[in-house]
Structure formats: structure tokens, C-alpha cells
């Protein structure tokens, strides 16, 4: 809180006050346990998080003979709440974690932001917040504030969101306080760009939504040998992610406790084809919008990343798919394959030039659209080489000149390379 009193020539003081409050609440009821024998855990329960931030600024004229304060001010408020039921299940042996979030309630206001200018007469003996007094009047240039409602999310998410904005038309049309980059826009999002009356809220109509819950699945695995029980048949990217064995396995309710031996064999065989004594790592992630009824088709987005390496060779694979079985034309897949040859890291002294010739090559193949093999394709091949023979003398002298000038400007003295270059230039009668 802050308080400032300003005297005036007419003998009545003006008082400026500002109150800031932040309320954070998390009510929960979690049940579950951990099994040491199977190295698995399961937690279920309800969470009710609430965050409310208020800032009230007032300017009052002190009139002790009236036993009241003529007051004007601005009340700003941010609030967010999302009660729901959560379930988490994990197994360390299989390296899988599954989470499920189900929103509770029929219609929820998830987020609210308001800027309310007001005026009132505040009595000395009344400690009620000024914005809640019956005498308080909201300051507005129009008799009936404008209201906009924007529904979204039903088509792609199966969740009926409604964005409601209410206030003066000039306030609604004001730009953001800061919009030059995403970080500044996010950081100053809570600061109002105008003190005109404005209020917006985000609602979720859970009763009329098709989606019941949001489920996520994470799977992590690794392999350090080239032994496989079944050979790889066909290219890994010949099918989309959810049409492979992985897409069938995640439909099983016991997926967290099952081993993905067949899917892991296909992924690592594809990566280890040209590697000797390889080591590989894999990460699979899927998010699913679970429908309320079995007659409603699911919406999913998933990705699978595999990386393998040996001494100098590196290979990687990426598969991404967004599948909306309700709106089939919105399905999208992306596949990428990376094959790179990198040299060993060179260790050298600072005063010595790197004399070893090195070369790095990489090839990136990308397929996306409706199919990874029959739609749009991009191939990027890069080669990076370094050799002292390829550097022209003029280019080398220019680089040494720039480095010496930087050292001299910063007052760091002259390095051995710069001293040698100056000595050589003086012999050749050239100014470096």
C-alpha cells in the first residue's frame, strides 16, 4: 500500500492512496501411492486453483466538516480459476507417464480482467472498499457500454470457449501497452492501455462441449546396441505416426505398464542403419482430447523424436501428426530425417593456429502435408569445411587487422599474434 497527502492553496488537502492485493489459493484432495516392487506410482484427486490480483487507486479531497471524502479512482482486477480433476500414472521400468485433466463445472469463467473508473462519497466511519459502496458510480462516456462475444474452440478442440469483452468502444479499440516483441507483450499484458471502462472474460461452456478431458502420454527410452529381434520392414516414415504400431499401443488402457519393444525396435533400427557402436535416445509425446461419448471421434496430436550417434556420425528422426477424425481435412503430418557427419572436437592452444583440416556434412529431408512420402518434400544439404589453404592472404590480413584494432581500442595490450603481425608488416613496409 502507498499513501501520499498533498496540501493545496485553499486549505484542503488531497490524498492519493493505492492498494495492491494478491490472493492465491489451492485446494486439493489427492489420493494415490507408490509401489517399490514395480517402481510405479498413481495419483488421483481434485484441484481448485484460484489467483486474484487487485489494484485500487483513489484520489480524495479531505473535507472534515462534511464527515466524508469526495473520491474518484480506478479499480483494476485480474482473476483466474480452473477447478478440475487430475490423474497421474507413471512407471519407471517402461519410462512412461500419463496425465489426465478433467474440468469440473458446467460453465466456468476461467480468466477475468477489468478496468473500472469510479466516483463516490466515502464516509469517515465506513471502511467498505469504495468500489463496493452503493453510492459508487462508474465513470463512462456512454450510457450503454458495448459488448462483443467471440465463440471459438468448438471446431478444432471440441471445447466451447467464449471471449466476452464489454466496455467503451474507444477503450476496446486501444492497442496494447507494448507490442514490439512477445516477451514485452506478455510482461505488460496486465497494464491497461487506457483508464476507460473495460472488462473482458474467458468462459468455458463445459456442459455443451464435446471434449470431456485432456490426456497426455510421455514415453522415454534409450538403446546402446544394434541387436534387434525383428528386422525393419519398409521405411519408418512410410506411415503416419498414428498409423504405426505406436498409434495402436496408445489406445490400450494398460499402455503405461507395457513395453514398446516393437515400436522401439522400428525406431532405433531406422536410426542405427549406418552407425557403428551406436547410442540412441527417444522421446514420444501425445496429447488427446477425450470425447464425452464413444460416438464422437477423438482429436490427437503426437510427436516422436529419435536421435542416434557414434564417433562422428549423427542421425535423427522426427515424426509429428495432428489427427482430427471429426474434421478429416484438417489432418497434418510432418516428418524430418537428419544425417550428419561431424569431426572430433579439436583441442588447441590459444597461441597456435588450427592446422587441421575439418569438414562437416549434413543432409536434412523434410516431408509434410497429408503424407510424409507423397506430398510436399524439402531436402537441404550443407557442407562446412575449414582449411588454412583456402583462406586468401588478403582475407587473413584483414581479419588479423580487425582483431588487433579491437585489442588496442579496449586497452588490453598486444597479443603475441598482433606483435608478430606488426613486425611482419613493418618488414614488408605495410601498415596493419
From TrEMBL:
Every copy of the Vitellinogen open beta-sheet domain together lies at 1-111
Recorded GO terms, molecular function? lipid transporter activity
Superkingdom as given in the UniProt entry: Eukaryota
Q: Which Pfam families match?
A: Vit_open_b-sht (PF09172)
Q: What is this protein called?
A: Vitellogenin fused with superoxide dismutase
